[in-house]
Amino acid sequence: MYICICNAIKETDLRKAARQHRGGAESVYAKLGKRPNCGQCLVEAEELITEERDAMAQPAMVA
């Protein structure tokens, strides 16, 4: 799924960049070589970045 239509940033790419780079959405976009254009995606992007980082901080559950 595309998170940012203006820059063609996919959710998977955003999550991967969030794991590799600190900062908010604009900083993570810069890591991808992009910058926000219209800004409509920023709230959702911030939520995904937070979600990804929170998941990284949780210990893995063993089944």
UniProtKB/TrEMBL annotation:
Keyword match Metal-binding: yes
Alphabetical keyword list: 2Fe-2S, Electron transport, Iron, Iron-sulfur, Metal-binding, Transport
Alphabetized InterPro entries for the sequence: BFD-associated_ferredoxin, BFD-like_2Fe2S-bd_dom, BFD-like_2Fe2S-bd_dom_sf
UniProt-listed Gene3D superfamilies: BFD-like [2Fe-2S]-binding domain (1.10.10.1100)
Signal peptide span: none
Coiled coil: none
Record-level Gene Ontology MF annotations: 2 iron, 2 sulfur cluster binding; metal ion binding
Domain BFD-like [2Fe-2S]-binding: 2-51
Family per similarity comment: Belongs to the Bfd family.
Name the UniProt record assigns to this protein: Bacterioferritin-associated ferredoxin
